[in-house]
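Expect chain and fold; see below:
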Amino acid sequence: MSNRRVVITGLGCITALGESADTLFDALCRAQSGISTIESFDVTQYPVKFGGEIKTFDAANYIDPHEVRRMGRFTQMAFAAAVTAVRDSGLDFEKEDKNRVAVIVGTGIGGIEEIEEQHVRLLEKGPRKVSPFCIPKLMGNAAGGCISIQYGLRGPNFCVVTACAAASHAIGETFYNILNDRTDMAITGGSEAALTPIGLASFCALKSLSTRNDQPQRASRPFDKDRDGFVLAEGAGVLILEEYEHAKKRGAKIYAEMLGYGATGDGYHITAPLPDGAASAEAMRQALRQARLNPEQIDYINAHGTSTQLNDVAESIAIKTIFGSHAYKLAISSTKSCLGHSLGASGAVELIVCAKTIQTGVIHPTANLEVVDPECDPKMDYVPGSARKANVRYALSNSLGFGGHNCALVIGRI
């Protein structure tokens, strides 16, 4: 078994609560909501009129303006988050072996807005008017491709597409690449920009979204008995993973150590989780086994916690399956209560939150949680109300995706 260790040395994110890990985490700890009425397109006819829309993001702050028009929004956000993470890490790739640097970035849907726009152009103006940038902007692997081109990186470069588990799977596979000595460092995470006319309409048709139009900032309420669906959001999260000795040699700042990765499939339903959460529980078991930790050693779980009826119950059952009586002693909170659900980006954003939790010793609350659903178990600590100080040595992050994809990541203080 490899003696190599993997650490997190850089964090970058683009979210409705800010464009840095510090800004995001501070807002979460204040239970600030990033949910608002959608302004980028007309939502008059939609049953849901709000989401986690990023209103202030300007790609030109991160990308050569001439290149911006060649990238779809999800690629722009991934690129910006990557630039931020690289700066945070202090890495200079000109001093590194670029064959030993991976770029593995996930997405659930990719450039859906480009498909929408070019389809309208096709119908209204004909095939000759379809943009030559259509394919480069819509393909899911564009984010990783553009990031690698920016830095001239030639290590493993691929895209993971597993719906809402995509970013977590991307990080887990990156972790394996470094452990197995294929690379020494990597840019990894996820990005999503599905808050578009067809994106919103499709999730409305699926009846999976909250319809709390009169109180959008109170709409995402994971584990609450009055929850009525998730809130669609956009965003990106990127982390720098690095082999420990390499990071130590260059004097890098280390946020946390990657310790375990578990991945399973439900084999049950295309959108609904297994009611007993058995496969999600197995992913957690795998991650703990690889981390060589007993369940009692986990201090905090960043839950997938979508605010849907089925997910929150199944995840709560899965946690109790693995943690037993310790499930009532550890802290559990959901970042989506403030940010909404950024689908294929969510796992990366949430692992960033876990890293900040370990670094700061503060656990952010699950916003809008007033009365715990009896089926989720009121005896469990979902951190309602306000943030709290805690000595978090080990944290676990859960991600569950449509299609029955489950992923668990474990990180710890170095």
